[in-house]
Structure formats: structure tokens, C-alpha cells
Amino acid sequence: MAECGRKALSLLEAARSRYESLQISDDVFGESGDDSSDNPFYSTSGDSDSDNYIAEAGEDEQQHPPQHHHHHPKRSDRDCGHSGGAGGGSGGAGPPGSLSRSQAEEEGWMETLQDVTVPPYKDTYGPTQKMPEAATALDFFQLFVPDNCIQNMVSQTNMYAKKFQERFGSEEGWCPVTAHEMKAFLGFVISTSVHRCESVLSIWSSGFFSNRSIALKMSQSRFEKILKYFHIVAFRPSQGSNQGLYKIQPFLDSLQQAFSCTFRPSQTQVLHEPLIDEDPVFITTCTERELRKRKKRKFSLWVRQCTSTGFICQISVHLKDGQGTDGLATLKNKPQLHSLVAKQLCQNISGKNAIIFTGPSITSLSLFSKFSKQDIYCCGLLSTRKSDCTGLPQSMLVCSSTPAQRGQSRVMMKGSMSLISWYNKGHFRFLSNAYSPTKQGLIIKRKSGEIPCPLAVEAFAAHLSYICKYDDKYSKYFIFHKPNKTWQQVFWLSISIAINNAYILYKMSDAYTVKRYSRAQFGERLVRELLDLDDCSPTQ
Fold first, then answer.
1. Mean pLDDT of the region 430-441
2. Do 176 and 277 share a domain, yes or no?
3. How far apart are alpha carbons 365 and 381 in whole angstroms?
4. How far apart are CA 495 and CA 247, in angstroms?
5. Which InterPro entries does the UniProt entry name for this protein (predicted)?
6. How far apart are the C-alpha atoms of 62 and 80, rounded to whole Å?
7. 389 and 357 inside one domain
């Protein structure tokens, strides 16, 4: 028994050592609590369910479709190469665009491996300005949503109200909103992320989610009037009038610039769609009628995110329907869509030797080759069903008829690009020019011990699983207010992202050494400061 305990302890120490060598911050975003210091990649406790998601391939790979955990449904992709045709041995047909053995040889794919080295990162890492110890939650939030931005909301809201009332008649009791009221308005809506109430109007109710401590700052009637007229851009511009996001685009541009000016990400970053679905607690408790009333999102949000801290460096919003340049209708179900998104998200990191991790929908040889010319290195998970497999050898994309051993891998190279096929309860394929195929990594699990793998596989799993953990926590602090208009949904989601980024900067500042607020306490403090309450300390 003692020997088993010593073995488990040694595995844990080895796992944490390797984890630290990948330069992932252990708990920049995390809460105080038992799970805040756990390694999201390695299983470090007997009841842990946070094993690397790459190892989540089901035991019955060919008999059952993939079953995804609700926390990261889009990242656990596996396949056996069947989508292109017959699946049996390496002679089976591969996915569209893949190369036969002779074609692969002509294109330069070979099994002879060579070492790959990524040049040093050409950028500094971390916050760009030093915040004082006395900096408040509002100070960090206003790095992204400054007073001039709030003043613009005031002006546009008043302009819209005036025009609306000129057309439909004046509204009794209405008076122009002030900057002080606009901050309070933001505070009320943001409070739904702290208290998890479905309707912001619950604040003034007598029910469970009522909050008299903040309800006295503004009447419900006044709040509803501001909510009715609230606008970022009151009127459609004369040019680019078919742009579906014109009511929110100036704010998104300002927010994006603020993200870039306040923080520089680490060398390793990930492109993905963050969790923005409905709150799982609501889904399990609401009635079928309430579920039917919920409309599906009409937009798609992609982000470029620092894998060392969770800071979201850039966002890209597209409408799922629309004729404008921000509409996805013209690119629907085409590989060009995700390639376009990836190029937009990475346009500011060319020439810096950054390493980006991608999911199956983005990973492709063509895109990675273009990024390589811009000194952007890539490591992505491949899927024969979701990825563009053009130019890749069929022999690496279909399953061999010979049973594979756990941890077994095959690698082929073309120049500095490696195509990896690795087995762990299922076949997983990776495309990478960011890690040398000659170097081995390890996946360390408490129950299974060490599972050998190429270094690219270990790096991908470690970094992406940290983002999965971040998303698990991040999704708890969405603004729960659910407007019907798409531009308002995008606005409040963007505000949620800004608050989480503000909290990351707070935890990396000297202010955190003075008062170590959790994410929930930080959110409550921000609400009270926006409402200008005298006592701004969070309730326990």
C-alpha cells in the first residue's frame, strides 16, 4: 500500500514538473478552492474527471459515435478515417484531397524525421502597464470600457430616444440619461453574472434574486426606460449600410484595441470558439416551454486566447445569416470559413514566432503553410470529417488493419511539417511545425501511469486542456441577461469577456497582493463601484 502511494506521488511530481516546463500559469484565472490549483491536463486525484480530453476517445471507437462532455463539446474530436470511404487498411480510400502513396512521395512526404526548432519569441509577455496597489475593480474594467466609451453610450441612447419619441410620440417621465446613470445601468446588468439571476428585473422583485442593497440606486421604471432606448450606434451609417453588426462594431473595434494595448500574450496561443451556450443549471431546471422560447444564437464568436493565462487577446464575431461582409451565408459549410477566421485572428502576430493551437475545423496544410511564411508556427488536431485534408497522405489518415498499441505513433514529414498519427483508445492525428517529431513527450495519468507520445501531442493536450479549464470557470460568470436582439447579445458577451480579462490583469498586478479577491468577489466589487455605493467591499 505504501509502495502504491509512493508511486502515485512520484507520478504526480513528474506530471507537475512537465506541466511547468510547458510554461503554463497554474492559476492565474482560478478561484480560491480545491480545484484552483489542480493540473487540468493530468489526473492528479483519485476522483478527478479532468484527464486530458485527448484521452477521452471512447473504448468502442468504431461502434459508437463520440460522446462529448458538456464543458468542452467541440474539442474532443476523434475518428478512424472512415469518412473518405472504406476504412480497413492503409490502402483504403482517404478523405477528399488526400494523396495516394505515390502522390505523397512526389509531394515530398517521407518517413525520415528531422529535428525542428522554433526561433525565440519576438515579443514581451504580460500586462503593458503597471497598475497601482490601490487600483480598484472599476479601474481594471475601465482599461477596456473607459469613460469616453460610456459617454458615447449616453449620447447614442439619448439620440435614439429622441428620434423614437419624435416618430411614435413622447414618453411620459422620460429624461435624457446621464453618464452616472449609464454606469449604474451597466452595473445592474453585470450583477446578473454575480448572482446568476435569469432576469435583471429580479433585482426589484420580492423573490429569491431580489437585491435591495442595489435596487435603491435606481427605480425599476427608470431602468426599464434606459433598457428600452439603450444603443451603441443609434442610426445606420450611410456607408456600409448592409453591415449587420453596425450597431455594435465601433464598440468591438474599441474593445479590440484595448485588449491589444493592455496585454501581450505568451508565445503559445489557441484559436477556438469559447463556451457561450446557455447556463447548464437553467437548461436542467427550465420547462420545455421555456426551452422552446430560447432562440438559437445568430452569430459565431471566435477568439485568440493566451494559453498561459486565459486572457482573450482578440475576438472575431460573424453573423450566421446575412449578406454583408460579416455574414457567413456565402461561406456556409465550406473550408474557407474557418481559414478566414483564423487569418483574421492572427493578423497581429505575424513575424513574432508565435505558436498557435487549432481544432479540427481550422487545421489544414494550406493554412499552416501560409502561417509558416509569416513566422507563425502551428499545432493542430486533425479530423478526416471536419478538417481540410488536401495534400496529406492517405496512409496516415486511415486506420491500419493491424491493432495498435496504446501510445504507439507514426510520423511523416514534409519539410518542417509533421503529420502525426497517435493511438490512445482511438486514433488521433496532428499536424504541426511547432514541435520536433524527434522529441518524445509523456501523458501522465494517475491510474494508467505514463503514456508515451510525440512532444506535439503532449503540448497540444496540456495547453488546450488549460483553456478547457478556463472556459469551465469563465462560463460561470457570463452576464445572464438574455436580450432578443443579436447586437445586444454580442455586446453583453463582449462585456463579459472584458470583465474576465480585467480580472486576469488584476491577479497579475500589485493590487492582488493587497486584497486577494476571487472572481465572484471581483465581480461583486465591480458592480458596487459602478453603482457608486459607499461600501464597495464585497459581501462574503
1. 95
2. no
3. 12
4. 15
5. PGBD, PGBD5
6. 8
7. yes
Distance CA 6, CA 96 (A): 50
Q: What is the pLDDT of residue 516?
A: 93
- pLDDT by residue (tens digit) across 275-302? 765 444 444 444 554 544 455 678 889 9
Residue 22: which region, alpha, beta or left (left: phi > 0; alpha: psi -120 to 50)?
Answer: alpha
Residues 304 and 163 in one domain: no
Instruction: Report yes or no on 422 lying in a domain.
Output: yes
CA distance 533 to 529: 6
What 3-state class would DSSP assign to 410?
Answer: strand
Query: 173 in the Ramachandran plot: left (φ > 0), alpha (ψ -120 to 50) or beta?
Result: left
Total number of domains in the chain: 2
> Which has the closest alpha carbon to 300: 93, 17, 38, 489?
489
Residues 492 and 470 in one domain: no
With a threshold of 0.85, does the pTM exceed it? no
Pair (430, 493) in one structural domain: no
Residues 319 and 245 sit within 8 Å (Cβ to Cβ): yes
Last residue of a domain, one of 474, 496, 516: 474
In a domain, 26, yes or no: no
Closest Cα to residue 62, out of 74, 76, 79? 79
Q: Of 156-160, 444-448, 491-495, which range is least confident?
A: 444-448
3-state secondary structure of 123: coil
pLDDT over threshold 70, residue 263? yes
Q: Report the run of H or E that residue 379 belongs to, with start and end.
A: strand 376-382
Domain residues for the domain of 462 are 265-284+292-320+330-474
Q: DSSP letters along 181-219, please?
A: HHHHHHHHHHHHHHH--S-GGGGGSSSTT--HHHHTTS-
* 318, three cell numbers: 460573424
Integer Cα distance of 227 and 217 in angstroms: 16
Averaged pLDDT for residues 188-202 = 84
The grid cell for 131 is: 497598475
Do residue 335 and residue 429 come from a single domain? yes
Give the full edge-to-edge strand order of the sheet including 312-319: 312-319, 299-306, 268-272, 354-358, 376-382, 427-432, 417-423, 409-414
> Do both 468 and 507 map to the same domain?
no
